[in-house]
Amino acid sequence: MPLPSKSFLTAQESKQKSDDHYHINNPSSDSEATQFSIPVIDLQGLDRLDSPTKRKEIAAKVGEASETWGFFQIINHGIPVGVLEEIKDGLRGFFELDTQVKKELYTRDPCKPVIYNSNFDLYSAPVTNWRDTFMCDVAPNPTKPEDLPQVCRDILVEYSMQVMKLGRLLFELLSEALGLKPSHMNDIDCSEGLVIRGHYYPPCPQPELTMSTSNHADNDFLTILLQEHIGGLQVLHQSKWVDVPVVPGALVVALEIFYRQLISNDRFKSIQHRVLANCVGPRIFVASFFCTGMLPLTKLYGPIKELLSEDNPPKYRETTVTDYVAYFNNKGLSSTSALSNFKL
């Protein structure tokens, strides 16, 4: 079984960080809220031009799930099941290549179009997570196909196109859920940037000492997540960790801090999530992040003006995505939100 790229660390360093911070990142090793159920939204019929009522119903469900959970699953989303399986298999094929082959892509430079490493925040976060990560840029400056690993090149290109289309649709529904015109989020470039990350979680011999991904909220606008059948993803809802069940053919949608709180002015609340480590595996998670943080853009984002009033004044100062992401990355993955730094 290939070792995770934390083998680039000493085993002693990795274990010490995990031991020191286990209680911070593992308040409970099991789900505590079996009475809760993550919303599952069926997008079937959304593309019917003769059924505006159906679209309103779906947008309303998206809005409700965004306000109460911030996480929901979607089915009948338009991406074929075969494509979902192929992207998992393709990325698994990369991670299970010989270590010497993968090392050619190993880097900690966030500006590289293709990145392979373990723990982007290794030197800033309080804990080392048990995972390897592959990342590539999709938009607005897509990675050249010849720079992608051959074992997953074709499916990365295909999956990227499918996710970009789905993301733009979700931003339309989210805009409508806020009472805005459907194109609002796309018009302010929420869907302009897209990065795909594949996370590889090998079996962990001592899962009680670490996490596959420690609890955090991401720094992008929107995340579309495909999880392996083994599962392990949890969200923090009403102070309890809730399992996100694996629904065949479904994708998990997470509204992240930058969108949910800063832009909506706290109408949508951010939510912590994590991935448990276990001795089963390996597991593949494919996360598609809509974010422009790695681009040298000067566009300012703040609470949407159409949502503000005398009774609902802005709660956050305007900032560029670049500055927000830089602060987030320097802080590292943790349960402490980066958003507090931008409150008025």
Description of the structure:
- By secondary structure, the chain is of the alpha+beta class.
- The chain has a single domain, classed as Sandwich (Jelly Rolls).
- 28% of the residues lie in helices and 19% in strands.
- The protein contains eight helices and 14 strands.
- It has helices at 11-25, 52-68, 81-95, 99-102, 153-177, 184-187, 257-263, 321-331, and strands at residues 40-42, 71-75, 114-117, 132-139, 194-201, 213-216, 222-227, 233-237, 240-243, 251-255, 273-275, 283-290, 300-301, 319-320.
- The strands form three sheets. The protein has an eight-stranded mixed sheet.
- Strand 8 (233-237) and strand 9 form a beta hairpin.
- Helix 3 (81-95) crosses helix 5.
- The radius of gyration is 19 Å and the shape is globular.
- Residues 190-293 form the Fe2OG dioxygenase domain.
- Residues 1-32 are annotated as: Disordered.
- Keywords: Iron, Metal-binding, Oxidoreductase.
- Its cofactor is Fe cation.
